[in-house]
Amino acid sequence: TSVRSLAVHAANEGANDSDSLAADQAEIQNALETIDRISASAQYGTKLLLDGSRGVQGSVTDPDVTFMSGTDATVAGTYAFVLSAQAEQAVETAGTANTAVLGQNETLTVNGVNIELTTGMSIAQVRDRVNEFNTSTGVTATLSGGDTLVVTTDGYGSAQTVSIVSNVAAAGDTSGVGTTVATDDGVDIAGTIGGLAATGNGLVLTGDAGTV
Q1: What is the pTM of this model?
Q2: pLDDT tens across 100-134, in order?
Q3: Distance between CA 99 and CA 210 in Å, rounded?
Q4: Which of 12, 15, 94, 128 suits a disulfide with 149, CB 3.0-4.6 Å?
Q5: DSSP classification of residue 27
Q6: Are the C-beta atoms of residues 144 and 173 closer than 8 Å to each other?
């Protein structure tokens, strides 16, 4: 019986008396003790695998840097981190500001997803409509200056791309996007760790073996 099932069963106090609850608690305690025993004894050769001793801990002095993890090859010590390129999201901004409600129906295509806009929508409603498709597009819409649509990827790095185009020409009573496809790619973080070149992937900078 899983610990979760026992917890769900025990939570139904209306159908359980004190003896049943005590029995559930005893099973949960026994399961936890079994997990602790396995984590303390599972090993490969002389190396314990599950007790946390194979993990690597670290701390940082720069509030803008977060220590993520290390490996068996990580050497204890102090490492200087030098940033040469900041990670960026992919961003596209409509070329025309919106000055009135939409004068006609319009279709925005964002990262291959068609988003239907209807006559009379305000630019704020357009923003909200785009955000309804966030799960499919991976982008979030905002307004610059209160009247210009901006779409930004949720993630960072070169794997992030935003593409947006409209089926109507840009004007003050449209989304302002226009009929020319606008695209942008994100940028990976770049820099060195301990004076050695590191590999950037989105917001994560990975050092070579022997460094963080």
Answers
A1: 0.68
A2: 999 999 999 999 999 999 999 999 999 999 999 99
A3: 57
A4: 94
A5: H
A6: no
